[in-house]
Amino acid sequence: MVVRTALFATQNQSVEAALEWLLENESEEDEEDSEAEAEPHKMVLVFNTSLGMGVGKVAAQVRDDLYVNNLV
What we know:
Elements (H helix, E strand, L loop, with lengths): L1 H8 L5 H10 L1 H10 L19 H14 L4
Helix pairs in contact: 1-2
C-alpha cells in the first residue's frame, strides 16, 4: 500500500522518484505502522532485466541484499 502511495505521490515518474519520496516520508509511515496490528506483508523485488544477468546471478543478488538488510 505504501508503494502505491509513493507512486501516486510522484505521479509514476520513476522508481527512483518513488524511492526518494518513501525515504523522505519514512517517519510518517513508521507512526502509522506502529499503530496498526501486525499483518502479513508481501515483499516485491524489482531488478533491471536489461543488465543481462542470468537467473542464478539475479537470485544471488537478491539473497545478498536480503541478508545485508537483515530481512531474512
